[in-house]
Fold this protein.
Amino acid sequence: MFEITGRDAAGRCGVLSINGRRLETPAILPVVNPKKMLITPRELAEMGFQGIITNSYIIYRDEGLREEALAKGIHALLDFDGVIMTDSGSFQLFRYRRVEVSQREILEFQDRIGVDIGVMLDIPTPPDVPASAAERDAGETLLRAEEAAEFERRMLLTGTVQGSTYPELRRRLASRISELGFEVHAIGGVVPLMEDYRFAELVRLVMPARQCLGHAKPVHLFGAGHPMLFSLAVLMGCDMFDSAAYALYARDGRYITPSGTLRLEELRELPCSCRVCSEHTIAELRSLDAEEREKLLAEHNLLVSLEEVRRVRQAVHEGSLWELVERRARAHPRLLEALHALHAHSDYIEALEPVTKPRAFFYTGAESLLRPAVRRHLERLGNIELRGRELVLLQEAEKPFSRSYRLSSSRRYHICVVSQVFGIIPLEVEESYPLMQHEGLEVPEEAQLRHMRRAVDEYAAGFERVHVHTSLAEVLNVEGEVFESHGEFRADPDPELKLRALADYQFGRGAGRMLFSSARAEYSRQGMLRRAYSDEGELLATLRPEDGVLVLTIAGARRLLRLPPPMCRVVVDEEAERFVREGRSVYARFVKACDPAVRPGSEVLVVNGEDELLATGRAVLSAQEMLELGCGVAVKTRHGCR
Ligand code: GUN
Ligand code: ZN
């Protein structure tokens, strides 16, 4: 029903299937007012929208619309064959504090008119109310959620998290709601925050709720209609949005761009090439009568929103969502603060973030240093067991560093480059993503110098001696014996040292010892490590050139299996054993247990309950997702083991 097709940060791309209809996520659902259609649902479908959201309460309260909806169904009423979600009247509750319908009545009505995704009648609590009021409303919303979840229906049903401006309350309510069996989850009560540009608070409230909603169901963020928020919301793990903004702004003469909103009077140019902006000049738009102008503005606003959603989906697939969010954060200081607030949750995000991506890591500014990938790298360095006794610190050079310097680490000298983005890069692991695959500045910024100093201080602690190149000694002011020429550190390449470091870095502490204690290496003509063999000449692993990932053979996997469980394991149900041994992929519903360190892109050992090797492969989900998702592929099997 909801299948995940791509992952980046805590965000995902997916497909929600319902009643033979498909909604690709992240999705933006334009709000359609059933009484006044500025742009008809048919026009929305032609523009490329796969879903819309309308209000079942408005239809229910209007006798003509109600009877028509009951007679021919919501899709015929609106003349739209895509996914239709309907809100329940909660928004009216929020505005007027009361509605003339019970939850049961509005749920029954949504289901009877053939809605694809219905919404419970939650109680949207505004921000900043006293804690007691937020608690009381949340308690009532939970009771209603329990009632709604029991309701027999054909439609998918949405359970909404409230909790005003209380993160703990949102966390608690989200945990309860996630246990009730809704097909869709929503985070509500945040429209006033967005209207007031309180984006950092939005992050502080959405993240705890999002974390407790789990990974199996799509999550809707109510009211996130402005495209400047889409990438941020998706990075946090939201899958769906509704936009009334396109119409509200159009009525107000406002022109949406992905980085903000402009008044039509302010515009001298149309910075867009959508249908509206390419077929009209700014003068024409101004001279139109109000109604026509409103419609054209609404159309432009919708098209730029759709374009941004597509840009976000592309970013998820190629692994550049952080870059997009960091770029968007430059549009407004409140968005930059939201990005800063996000870094408080980087443990959660790191646990979901792929270990390798199709695109290089691009440094966009000091915030990039706080991405989970940077912290993860510094933590993984701690896994390397075997390294030289004396630390040698070099400045950055053209990559690969070992080729630029014609150096490699030895049992005496552990040679590292001090990196303005990753802090420390030992030559042994320089091929590993994203170390080789990143772009930084020519000259580091002040924040980077501090970052480098900190990384060096922490890393240098475990060595007998530290040798620092003179240029670094000046810029970084780090302690050590200063040298000018690196020639004295030259030694013959030591394949065991390198292979073991790569394995420890990728698979965890001890992996190198298990895999490569006696191994031979094969190098490419350019001198890059390519394959590792056992002493008996059996191929153990290949180093993938694009991202420096060690890909195991079955022989290699057998050696790695000597690591204590659950390291590197994905344990599958016996039902799937035969298929996996034949080399078929592992579906999430057959995963019984999993090493918590598994991330999308991790190379893993697939085993049965007796810890017997069934296959090796590449995880496409994180550990948490594998255990929670009911459908989709969890591990792409590379080699089965008969
Ligand atoms: N529309 C905007 N905010 C909300 C909300 O919190 N709940 C519901 N059901 N609809 C909304
Ligand atoms: Zn346009």
Notes: The CA atoms of residues 126 and 148 lie 22 Å apart. The radius of gyration is 28 Å. The longest strand covers residues 11-18. The chain has a mean pLDDT of 96.
